[in-house]
Amino acid sequence: MKSMLDYKFILSFFLICCSGLLFSQTEKENEIENVVIKGVKKYKNKKENPAYAIMQEVWKKKKSNGLLLHKDYQYKTYEKIDFRLDNIDSAFTKKKAFRGMDSIIFKYNDSSEIAGKAVLPIFITESIFNVYGKNNPKKERKDLVATRLSGLKNNQIVSKTIQNMYQDINIYDNTINYLNIGFVSPVSRDGFGIFDYNITDTIEVNTVKSYEIRFTPKNQDALALKGRLYISMDKYNVMKVEMETNKKININFVKNIATDLEFDNPDDSTFIPVRNETTLQLVLNDKEKAKYVLAKRVANYSDYQFDKGLTDDFLNKIVVPEDEMVAKDEEYWQANRTEALTTSQQNIYKMYDELEHNPKYKKIVKIVEIGNSGYIPIGKSGIDFGNIFQSFGYNDIEGTRLRGGFRTYRGKNDMWRIQGYTAYGFRDQKWKFGGEAKYMFNKTNRFQVGAGFRKDVLQLGVQLTTDEGIMTRSFASSSVLNSGETTSMSSVKQTSLYTSIEPWKNIQLRLDATQQSIESADSNLFNINYYRGGVLRTDLNDTRFTATIIARPGIKFSTYGVDRYEMTALANNPTLILKYTKGVGGVFNSDFNYNKLQFYYYQPVILGNWGRLFANVEAGKNFDALPLALQNVMPANQSYGLVRGVFSLMNYYEFVADSYAVLFLEHHFNGKILSQIPLIKKLKLREVAFFRSGVGSLRQESINMNAGNINLSTPEKPYYEYGFGIENIGWGNFRIMRIDFNWRGNYLNHKTTNTDVRKFGVQFGFQMNF
């Protein structure tokens, strides 16, 4: 259910970067006595460090201050994000790439803000939100009130990518999430294992006397932060934080991350955030004099109100803003902006007002949009050609496969969509095709209906909890490089109807009705023969109804149309699916009555500076005996490509189960280990470890029903495989290669087809990540 990476986010980021590069001491005065301020010092024992006594008091209050003191809260957020190209010179302004736009772009060069360096404004967006929340249980609602952006106005993927690179930071959390990389917070209880703390001064922050505590990483090669904490001397609350990454960070495309946080105390007990400024220094190479993009986000929090009696019904209400409601004029922004625009930021609006009508700029924007969506607009017809990323594939049945398609597209919030495709295999010399239409009646509860049909050759059995969509196609059906034969393909004719609704935020209820006929694509190489009522059958008719509940708490989306782009780049949100399928025999010549229940759970977790874990758990049961074509097939991967949520050393249809449970664990250490090894650490490689296991059962009736050329087998003793990978292979700051080494743990002599068991395998691929 999850792709290998949130590639659209990284691709958007990459395109943005590319387009940018082209264009006095005192004594303590409270109960901790006689603390003397000293210079930077390392202590043998943390209890000898006077900062330790202060931080202990901070830890005591971390769960009982700020917003947590109140039953409910509400406040206003003003957010401003701008991108600027830094370190440009006169030679850069004369590059061919700018011809036709230079008279507009470079008259807005600004050298006033960053000591003598020329800065080119690239992008700016402003937004105002009203935030409402309660603490027990934790619920929050964030309503967009106004938004404004320059350039790329029609490309929501790009603009939302920029906004999705940042998030509000709770300094009291143990882990701070930057670009899905976990950094230990300087306020974490684990901090004294990561940082050296030194009290360096006492100052006033927002009229509050505070300790200034400097923190630096114990290991200068580790992925860690450095900076200063300002702790109030009477209440032990964090008043201010200045922190940034150390110089040797191993983050692709990023040279530095810096964050300043400010807090205020409107009363004696409540300390609330008032400002968050985060700056990313983005580069495509790590040379010292390389040009880079400065991406800064400023968020101001104001108009706090507490304990107003917010109800669950109010907080659960889904508000979908219409474009015209959040588009405000300059007079509104002058009145509601809580931080004035700099000259450079004002120039961005001026520049893009002029660029909007420039032919060359329009072409650049179109290229960026095509790279994100995969679709090419056909004039002003409202029809796009694509998806170009699905144009080519290969398997042993079809040989080389070419595919072309289209979709209707009139705007980012379209309420309806029609899309289709056709494909041709040069070996089987057959045309395949499919199409789907869907319409959404209401943006608030997303009530929609759809219908589709396809006739295609597919590799079934590579996904347990399947996607019911017509336009989807499995990786195994269109991979290019394979480690074994791809002959177990099926010819499928499928008609599908569906309706879905989201009565609660991020809770989807869906009902599908599907009629399909399945037969072997080449019965000489693979067949699904089975006995029904003593009669040998070579094809199967199936009519089924599927009810699905999909819960994705915390997921955010960039648009609200019938198709919407999911913003998951900084998310650790789970996905839960509960699915019940009822096969109805006799309807449209359907061959079987059956019942199936399935459960799916996916969870990414950031484990501090130890990296990020991806966990999948699936379980299911067929309550009736069924032939191979309708069975639960343990998902395999016979390609050399990287695919999460499948078994890399299992052959297609090697294991089949009436009842099953599978577990997939994949942990990315972000260089935690390799960065400690001399010489190796200079390569900036990162390590990955994974473990996969599955167990199942198969009733004898299902085995007796089978008459194909595959001996049905199930992993009654848990099958498992394991291995490690090396990622971040590349050069400079462009590192997108990954290689995995897989070992099979058991069933080493297991064989159900003519394909040999693979005890070891290597897989590789490209992954765009930070």
From TrEMBL:
Entry keywords, A to Z: Signal
Stored InterPro entries = DUF5686
Leader sequence range is 1-24
| Record-linked Pfam families | DUF5686
Protein name listed in UniProt = Membrane protein
What is the species of this protein? Epilithonimonas arachidiradicis
Q: What is the lineage of its organism?
A: Bacteria, Pseudomonadati, Bacteroidota, Flavobacteriia, Flavobacteriales
